Amino acid sequence: MTFRAATMQDVTALSNLVNSAYRGESSKKGWTTEADLLGGQRTDPDTLRATIADPNAVILLTFQENDLVACVFLQNRKTTGYLGMLTVSPHLQAGGIGRQLLQMSEEWVAQNWRLTKMEMQVIEQRTELVSWYGRRGYVVTNRRAPFPYGDPKFGEPKVQGLQFIILEKALAAPTHRE
C-alpha cells in the first residue's frame, strides 16, 4: 500500500469512494454503511475541493497498486487533531486497512502538527463503529453535537434522533525531528 495527500485531481475518485462506502446499496457490502440511517450523499466534490485547499487540513489517500482504496480527513484544530471520513472501499473492509490508516493518521498528526490529542464525531446510533474505535483507544466523552437535519449536504436522515458523540484519544508524544 502507498499513501499520499489528496490533490484536486483526486476529487472525483475520492467522492465516489466515500459515497460508495457510507451510502446506498454499494455500502451494504461493508460494515461501515450508514444506509439504514441516512440516504443521499456523504460528501460532494465542492466540499472535497474546499477541504483539499484548506491549509489546516489534509485528506490522506491509500492506494493498492494504482487503485484508491481508502482515505481519511485530518484537521489541525490548534490544540487537537480532528479525524473524520475514515473510509475503506466496501469490498475491502474488515481486512485491516482501516486500522492501518487510523494508526498512520495518529502518527501523522503527532509528527506533522505536533498535537497530542485526536477527536472525532460518530453518529451515536453507530454502536458497532463506536466499539471499533474504543478497541483502538478512543474514549467516548460526555460531549454531543447535533446532526445537521435539513441540510442535504450531510445526507437525508431516515430516522429521528440522530446526534454525534465525541470520541477522543491521547496520542503518543511526537518524536524530535532534526
Describe this entry's structure for a reader.
- By secondary structure, the protein is of the alpha+beta class.
- It has a single domain, classed as Aminopeptidase (3-Layer(aba) Sandwich).
- Helix content is 28%, strand content 32%.
- The chain contains 5 helices and 9 strands, in the order βααβαβββαβαβββ.
- The protein has a 7-stranded mixed sheet with strand order 1-3-4-5-6-9-7, with helices on both faces. A two-stranded antiparallel ribbon has the order 2-8.
- The longest helix has 17 residues.
- It is globular.
- The mean pLDDT is 91.
Which helices and strands appear, and what pairs or packs with what?
Elements: E1 2-5, H1 11-22, H2 24-27, E2 38-39, H3 45-53, E3 57-64, E4 67-76, E5 81-88, H4 97-113, E6 117-123, H5 127-134, E7 139-146, E8 156-157, E9 163-170
Parallel strand pairs: 5-6
Antiparallel strand pairs: 1-3, 2-8, 3-4, 4-5, 6-9, 7-9
